[in-house]
Design goal:
Porin; about 15% helix; alpha+beta; about 200 residues; 2 domains; about 55% strand; 2 helices
């Protein structure tokens, strides 16, 4: 009885060893003529890494500003549309409207500026944007100089101003913030008080 028991155990071990070797050969040798169901499933399922071509797209955003100071008000509305030609290069256009007024003891003025802009931007890295933008503004306004003991001096004016801005901005998700410099700045005609100006943009 004991010998038959050991013989049965030995036979089972031999069968198990042969089965495990066959399974190992089948799973590691794709050219083996017999394939288990598991191997067939492995070979019939192929993981393919898909690559997608970049799709250019439109984005919309712009700048919005509102400030109040001693007797003065400044309002900036500048919607823009951007076209992402590549992940690094953007081009776009926009409109700019600026209202500015002031009234104090020395005089007062009120003016409106309106005009188009075109821009191009390059992002060497995702968080940095280098830009160049042309903006032309038509400005119409009037001013009054208050004189003590003499009639006030009134003046109506209208002029066109060209500006070319070179800028650098940091980009975080849908918001950019940085500075720009007007290389064509003319203090007698520009609606801005300095050639340098901050830039805060939003993209959607």
């Amino acid at each position: 009885m004991l010998s038959r028991f050991y013989l049965s155990i030995g036979f089972c071990l031999i069968v198990a060893s042969v089965f495990s070797q066959e399974t190992k050969v089948i799973e590691n040798n794709p050219d083996y003529e017999f394939q288990s169901e598991k191997r067939q499933q492995e070979q019939s399922t192929t993981a393919v890494k898909k690559t997608y071509a970049y799709q250019p797209s439109w984005h919309f955003g712009g700048n919005l500003g509102l400030s109040f100071w001693n007797g003065g008000t400044d309002i900036l509305i500048a919607p823009k549309a951007y076209y992402s030609v590549t992940p690094q290069f953007l081009a776009g256009f926009g409109l700019t409207y600026i209202y500015s007024s002031s009234d104090d003891d020395f005089g007062k003025y009120s003016q409106n500026s309106f005009g188009p802009s075109v821009m191009a931007a390059f992002r060497p890295v995702p968080f940095l944007q280098l830009s160049a933008e042309y903006e032309g503004l038509q400005t119409n306004g009037n001013s009054t100089l208050k004189l003590i003991g003499a009639p006030n001096i009134k003046n109506d004016y209208s002029f066109w101003n060209n500006a070319l801005y070179l800028g650098a901005s940091f980009v975080s998700r849908n918001v950019s913030f940085g500075v720009r410099y007007d290389v064509l700045y003319d203090s007698s005609r520009s609606v801005y008080g300095s050639a340098w100006s901050p830039v805060i943009g939003f993209y959607f």
